[in-house]
Design brief:
Layout: E1 4-7, H1 13-24, E2 28-33, H2 36-46, E3 52-56, H3 62-70, E4 81-84, H4 100-128, E5 132-136, H5 149-168, E6 175-181, E7 184-185, H6 188-192, H7 198-201, E8 209-210, H8 211-222, E9 232-235
Helix pairs in contact: 1-8, 3-4, 4-5
Bound molecules: NADPH dihydro-nicotinamide-adenine-dinucleotide phosphate (NDP) and 2-hydroxyethylsulfonic acid (8X3).
2-hydroxyethylsulfonic acid binds next to loops.
Length: 251
């Protein structure tokens, strides 16, 4: 039987590439995001390969998150795969001058949003005693870098929550995975720098990971045999050694 996946943050970057990768493998898709035009476009394109529905909600809205996921049409109710991907960095500032709004956004979206979505999906998985949750962490969840403070904190939290999920869901046979990429060329930096010029230089002078590279690893994780769980992946582009060392060509 075809599997069903719910992907948050499907309107851009890693989530969008994962939707395309899963569609190739005929996984039924519940695609989530806030930009309706992009959700419509994805539904039009991917419906050629698989069944697709879209959900428009902000993961910060606890009531709406629980409501929309709780009222899925019957054919999409049994979620086999949850990709907790929605999230971003907001700002890159030293802790002494960071913006409270940016801090709220990162903790509310990257951490609490992930929890709300999980809360809506996990009961079905425990009832069926099967499922796979993939949380998109980051290299920032393993290593703190200058001015990364709160974003790194949010991603360290994602990793701790992932480990907690793996422990608590172990009796139910549910797989839990963290995929932790380094620099990926998406809209991430446009969001972090609020569309400012700084975003233009982030992926210049080297070949960053592409969203499709991460999507392939996500599909690898979900396509392992029943007895195999890919627990934790750290992936960088070849030019990146860690959060602060990136080999760039002079341009
Ligand atoms: P993008 O900015 O390209 O995509 C972010 C996605 O998250 C969009 O689809 C956006 O959709 C969604 N999103 C953001 N805020 C909300 C919200 N409040 N409610 C619902 N959806 C939301 O970035 P990436 O693809 O790069 O990021 C995806 C994940 O990967 C994030 O968790 C990020 O932290 C992580 N990551 C990214 C790396 C990178 O270098 N790019 C590296 C490591 C991890 P919409 O605006 O339509 O709601
Ligand atoms: C995104 C990668 O290095 O900008 O999580 O934090 S980084």
């Amino acid at each position: 039987m075809k599997k069903t996946a719910l992907i948050t943050g499907a309107t851009s970057g890693i989530g969008r590439a994962t939707a395309y990768e899963f569609a190739k493998h005929e996984i039924k898709l519940i695609l989530c995001g806030r930009r309706q035009d992009r959700l419509d476009q994805l539904q039009n394109e991917l419906s050629k390969s698989t069944e697709v529905i879209t959900l428009n909600f902000d993961v910060r809205d606890r009531a709406k998150t629980l409501e929309v996921i709780g009222s899925l049409p019957e054919a999409f109710q049994n979620i086999d795969i949850l990709i907790n991907n929605a999230g971003n960095a907001h700002g890159l500032d030293p802790i002494q001058t960071g913006s409270l709004d940016d801090w709220d956004a990162m903790m509310d979206i990257n951490v609490k949003g992930l929890l709300y979505v999980s809360k809506a999906v996990i009961p079905g998985m425990t009832e069926r005693q099967s499922g796979h949750i993939i949380n998109i962490g980051s290299s920032a969840g393993k290593e703190v870098y200058p001015k990364g403070n709160v974003y790194c904190g949010s991603k360290h939290a994602v990793l701790a929550i992932t480990e907690g999920m793996r422990i608590d869901l172990n009796p139910f046979g549910i797989k839990v995975t963290a995929i932790n990429p380094g620099l990926v060329e998406t809209e991430f930096s446009e969001v972090r720098f609020k569309g400012g010029k700084q975003a233009d230089s982030v992926y210049k002078g080297y070949k960053a990971l592409q969203a499709e590279d991460v999507a392939e690893v996500i599909y690898f994780a979900v396509s392992r045999p029943a007895h195999v769980n890919i627990a934790d992946v750290l992936m960088f582009c070849t030019a990146q050694a860690n959060s602060t060392i990136v080999k760039k060509e002079l341009i």
